[in-house]
Amino acid sequence: MTVLTEGGADVFVVNLNETDEPPPYYVEVGGRRFSFDGSTFLIFGHSAVMPQWVREHEAEGRLVLLGERDDRYLRYVHDPTEEMEEDEEE
What we know:
single chain, 90 residues, alpha+beta, six-stranded mixed sheet, 22% helix
C-alpha cells in the first residue's frame, strides 16, 4: 500500500494488479470494509477531481481508498455509520 498526495489531499492506494480476477467489490484494510463506489479515476489525469472527491467524503466522516488497476484508480469508501447500522441489526 502506498500514499498518493494530490492537491493537498492524501489517500491510500492498494495495488489490485496482482491477479487477473475482476477487482473486488469490498476491500478490507485495518479491520474496516471499503466498498467500491462504482467509479474510477484515470491514473494520469486524476488530479483535477480526485482531491475534491477525497475532501468531500472526509468532510462527511467517510474514509476513502483507491485501488490501482491497470490505468485506473477504483474508488472505495468506508462509511462508519453504515458499519454501526449493521452491528445494530445483528
